[in-house]
UniProtKB/TrEMBL annotation:
The chain crosses the membrane at residues 41-64, 76-93. This is Manganese efflux pump. It comes from Altererythrobacter rubellus. Keywords: Cell membrane, Membrane, Transmembrane, Transmembrane helix. The keyword ATP-binding does not apply. Pfam families: Mntp.
């Protein structure tokens, strides 16, 4: 059994990683808070839809992540990090240089 499943890997979610995740979540919530009122949709239905989609996709991602982690180990973590960095660079490029 891996260290994460034994609870010994929880220290990896402290310090800088936890701080960075909280900043990313805050920026995402800020963007949604600015964008949602411009859509003229009912707030309760919009929040319910976001909650359901988030729950379903999170469950799928957890299952996929566990399987990928079991097969690929550290390489899966590195690939995921690289993909997130590339996604961030793409978003910055689209909203600054390509605008």
């Amino acid at each position: 059994m891996s260290d994460e499943r034994n609870g010994e890997g929880s220290a990896r979610l402290s310090g800088f990683a936890l701080w960075a995740a909280s900043i990313a979540t805050s920026v995402d919530a800020f963007a949604a808070g600015i964008t949602l009122p411009t859509l003229d949709l009912p707030p309760l239905a919009t929040c319910a839809t976001i909650a359901v989609v988030t729950a379903v996709l999170s469950a799928i991602a957890i299952e996929f992540g566990q399987r990928a982690g079991d097969r690929c180990g550290r390489h899966a973590e590195i690939a995921g990090g690289v993909m997130l960095i590339l996604l961030g660079v793409n978003i910055v490029f689209d909203h600054t240089i390509a605008a």
